[in-house]
Amino acid sequence: MDFEDKEYKHRYIMNNTQGKSNISSADRKALEALLVDNQDFIRLEGLLDQFNIFEALGVVRQELRHSDFLAFLLDPRQNHSIEDIFVKLLLQKALLAAKDIDIPITPLDLDIWDLRQAYVQREWLNIDVLLLDDKHKLALIIENKIGSKEHSKQLQRYYKDIQRHYPNYSIVGLYLTPEGDQPTENTYISVSYNLICTILEDLVKSRGSTLKTEVLIVIKHYTSMLRRHIVSDSEIADLCRSIYFKHQRALDLIYEHRPDRQTTIQKELENLIQQQNNFQLIHSSKGYMHFILKDRNTALSSEEKDQASLRQVLIFQFGNATDSLRLTLLIGSGPQEARQKLFEMASRPPFKPVRRTLTIGWLTIYKRQFLTPDLYEDDDDDEIIAKLKEQWLHFLEGDFLKIRDTIMKYED
Prior knowledge:
By secondary structure, the protein is of the alpha+beta class. Helix content is about 45%, strand content about 15%.
């Protein structure tokens, strides 16, 4: 419900509520069948109850943290005692699986080479993981995707960047995804997280006695976490599929009412708005939230306020999308005199009207991006809420004071 696209009456917003329906008998029975004496469910809970450090840290689906850990394992100079074994195994297996790709090196080259002087960089020119070996003039690009997709021709751009900065190097590009998705660029080799799991598990079996105890434990926790959450052919994945086929109705019902990220942000915004004496929350849904400035003159009746107060015409709107959060301030419906006065007020910062003339309908006069898409890719809910609170505080201590003072000036 975007006020700039459609005309909504203020009274409709004030009175809008969401209805709730009772659970049906069939839905109740479906939920009971899921939870009561379900051996697959009991087995699944047992597997998930095992402690895992990566789950405890909340980094299961954070691409940045996966890239950090893989960069640590790939770097022969790190203190994990793996030296160059992991990077060699990964490259050899990837090269053997590559089809119709012109690769400048062979698995035999890697078997002979000593890569212990290679070094790893993170986010150099936005490349997730870059390994460079000056001795053999080798550059390994790894683009890591957990929940996101390719964009902006990034694979092509990364490859050209390395060609430009390291013109005489042999370049190998790996496109790492949970399922081994095919990259858009034929210069990259598709690699799945199942391969990462297999290599690390084989490494633990063959060289576990030479690894430091703490490194061994962390690698086991990492592969276990991948098998639980990322790799599709795990025991957990099989159990989940089996449970879903048997209890689809109940699980669809649970999914429909899950506390997703948009709902989490909605509840947090409601709390933040209601904690401020200046604001009155007038509408809240998952996608949009609206609030106004409370009127200074409490002696006026409701009818008089509708006619007299500029504040009743100004609407703050949070647009709570699945991958972003934006705050806008809009001139809404109301007396034309008040609307014209507000439009004149919006001719100076921090206001920036999207149109040069005041037309019929709702008009945006201020925008502020609170949360950007990159945060949704890389951060968990707790980190996003922390950044939301930080942005809210910056708004209250900055632009809001200017907005409030300007409104008060025009009210006098």
